[in-house]
Amino acid sequence: MTPLVDPEAARVLTNPSTVLSVLDFAGVAVFAATGALAAAREKHDLVTLAFFAAITGVGGGTLRDVLLGLPVFWVSDWRYIAVCLAASLAIWLIGQRDWRFRALLWLDAFGLGAYGVMGAAKAEAIGASPLICIVMGALTACFGGIIRDLLAGQPSILLRREITISAAILAATAYMGMRLLEIPIWPAAVIAALLGFGLRAGALARGWSLPGFPERRGGAVR
Question: Would strands 220-221 and 216-217 be described as parallel, antiparallel, or unpaired?
Fold first, then answer.
């Protein structure tokens, strides 16, 4: 009987470098789109859209690689910047749409899950401790969005009461937990990314948030 999947293709699809590469490009593309959308909200030109897309798409991964002492990923691989430019062009061609802002939020939600996993996975690959892997996942997922919001003059994701950073932390933590249990990379990455996305999606759809710092009333903390 002829196998349903070519053995060579199966080896490629289950190779850790292939898994992480797919996740990395997906995260860059999604965050680049959010950067271009942020610039489009302010009616900037195509060059500015491309700049926002690039700095948002690669910002978190750049910080991760610098902190881990690794070569910055996009410097040696032009495809990452090409993906950012393609995302900005796509947003430009789509033009004015009523659903643009909602698209930014949902793309950001997907990016938080995917890049939370990617950051943790790259740190894991060089032997970092699980806690550091989780921190790298959160930084990778959030830093590009922080730069985007600052450049766009919008409130930073750090200041939103809705769950945002927690989604990236959940994705990174779930991934590391499954990897410690020796679950293969593909299922661990997909499940963890979906968990992070699901948490952020719940925040968007239902307004989920973590408890804020308690205020003092009459000398007592409530």
Answer: antiparallel
Count of other CB atoms within 10 angstroms of residue 137? 34
Label residue 45 left, alpha or beta by phi (over 0 means left) and psi (-120 to 50 means alpha). Answer: beta
Residue type, 73: F
Q: In angstroms, what CA-CA distances link 5 with 8, 9, 58?
A: 8, 7, 34
Alpha-carbon distance of 158 to 101, in angstroms, equals 18
Model confidence pLDDT, tens digit, residues 140-150: 998 988 888 88
Structural contact between residues 214 and 222, judged by C-beta atoms closer than 8 angstroms: yes
Token look-up 């610098």 returns: 66
Reduce the DSSP state of residue 99 to 3 states and report it: coil
Matching residue, tokens 């002829």: 2
Torsion angle defined by CA atoms of residues 35, 38, 40 and 45, in that order, rounded to the nearest 10 degrees: -60
Instruction: Check: CB of residue 96 under 8 Å from CB of residue 66.
Output: no
Q: Tell me the per-residue pLDDT of 61-112, one tens digit each, with 9 for 90 and over.
A: 999 999 999 999 999 999 999 999 999 999 888 876 666 667 777 887 888 8
Q: Which residue pairs from 207-211 have beta carbons closer than 8 angstroms and sit at least 24 positions apart in sequence?
A: 207/162, 208/162, 208/163, 209/161, 209/162, 209/163, 210/163, 210/166
